[in-house]
Amino acid sequence: EDKVVQSPLSLVVHEGDTVTLNCSYEVTNFRSLLWYKQEKKAPTFLFMLTSSGIEKKSGRLSSILDKKELFSILNITATQTGDSAVYLCAPWRDSGAGSYQLTFGKGTKLSVIP
Amino acid sequence: SQTIHQWPATLVQPVGSPLSLECTVEGTSNPNLYWYRQAAGRGLQLLFYSVGIGQISSEVPQNLSASRPQDRQFILSSKKLLLSDSGFYLCAWGTGTGGYEQYFGPGTRLTVT
User: Is there a contact between A101 and A95 (Cβ–Cβ < 8 Å)?
Assistant: First the structure.
């Protein structure tokens, strides 16, 4: 059975801190992995990672994938209160016959204190 | 640019009543469409997905059904709601041959009383 484990489940930091969120996965026929940020409503897309060892960056956020060890990390530097959210990781798997499905982790709840 | 709409935004329904949630996508053709549910304290669970008109695949046996009557329209339905159907329902779309970006609609918060 496919499995996605995110850690920590929750995290409280002060503004300006740097955080690392972890995602380990076991999915059949892995294709790529997505990271999302979910505030009060729908998840918003952050990154898609397909290749190992290639860091993707967007402002203070960056992410990298290790397909050999089956994990990904999301880093946030110089955190701000606006970074407070649940961060979700979701690997794609090829379930055959041209269909592809995301399996979501339960998320890491990040709270940034002023 | 592509946009995805869902309505209603919130819904309170009694047990045993029917349900119809609608999702439409603009700015793209032949998208793959998905319905997810996020229950309190749980992760996003894929309910249905569709790769084309009239093509629906179900991930989890349940009280719900889905239909895709038009290319960019995806409907989630139930004939009789259960308390356990309460949750946050999200529609999403994506294109490509797999391992691609997927974008979510604003969601519908359903409370069954």
Answer: yes
Which two structure tokens, joined as six digits, stand for B2? 């592509």
Place of tokens 């967007």: A58
pLDDT of A46-97, one tens digit each? Answer: 999 998 999 999 999 999 999 999 999 999 999 999 999 999 999 987 777 6
What part of A 42-101 touches B (C-beta under 8 Å)?
A: 42-45, 48, 50, 88, 90, 92, 94, 98-101
**pLDDT computed for residue B2 by the predictor:** 85
- Alpha-carbon gap: B17 to the closest alpha carbon of chain A (Å): 25
Structure tokens at B96: 């490509």
A18's tokens = 């740097």
User: At A65, which amino acid appears?
Assistant: L
